[in-house]
Write a structure and sequence with these properties.
- 18% of the residues lie in helices and 36% in strands.
- By secondary structure, it is an alpha+beta fold.
- The chain has one domain.
- Strands 1, 2, 3, 4, 5, 6 and 7 form a seven-stranded mixed β-sheet that branches.
- Strand 1 (11-24) and strand 2 form a beta hairpin.
- The longest helix has 18 residues, at 97-114.
- The model has no long low-confidence stretch (mean pLDDT 85).
Length: 158
């Protein structure tokens, strides 16, 4: 069996996802079935999952990034979050400057790989990343792929 080696300069980020949280009246609250303390304030990525007529129950609707505060960024989505059917939020904070620098590329790669409909302007083309990137999704990562690499041949850049 041949071992495939990643590119020498591949960057790496591990995203530890928490949630689901519920969006209620402009606030994140613990989910009654999967209680997890809401403490996702700070920079990171977030997923919006909701029931929909076009995607079915618990379908990924949106992937977003917050460079300062996930709470503040979600508040900017309040108008459409309030119209979603049972929206749930998953969040992954970043804690280091290195990971913060990878946020935009990580968001682009996740959007490209999972194609959420509310990110439709970002899913048409292969992402233009600053360099090769590998993502590990750990924790409560909804149904995201456990590992993504921009070097994967199916993503068109390898």
């Amino acid at each position: 069996m041949e071992v495939i080696k990643p590119p020498a300069k591949e960057r790496f980020i591990a995203l530890e996802w928490r949630g689901p949280y519920l969006w209620r009246k402009g606030k994140l609250v613990s989910h009654p079935v999967h209680p997890d303390q809401v403490h996702e304030d700070g920079p990171g990525l977030y997923l919006v999952v909701a029931d929909s007529h076009d995607g079915g129950p618990s379908s990924l609707r949106y992937i977003g990034k917050a460079t300062k505060s996930i709470f503040d960024r979600l508040k900017k989505h309040a108008s459409w979050l309030e119209t979603e059917w049972r929206p749930e939020i998953y969040a992954a904070r970043v804690h280091t400057k290195k990971d913060l620098a990878l946020l935009s590329d990580a968001e682009e790669l996740l959007i490209y790989a999972h194609s959420p409909p509310y990110n439709s302007t970002s899913i048409a083309e292969t992402p233009k990343l600053a360099g090769p990137l590998r993502i590990w999704n750990v924790g409560r990562a909804w149904r995201l792929d456990a590992e993504l690499s921009s070097s994967h041949p199916f993503l068109g850049s390898g």
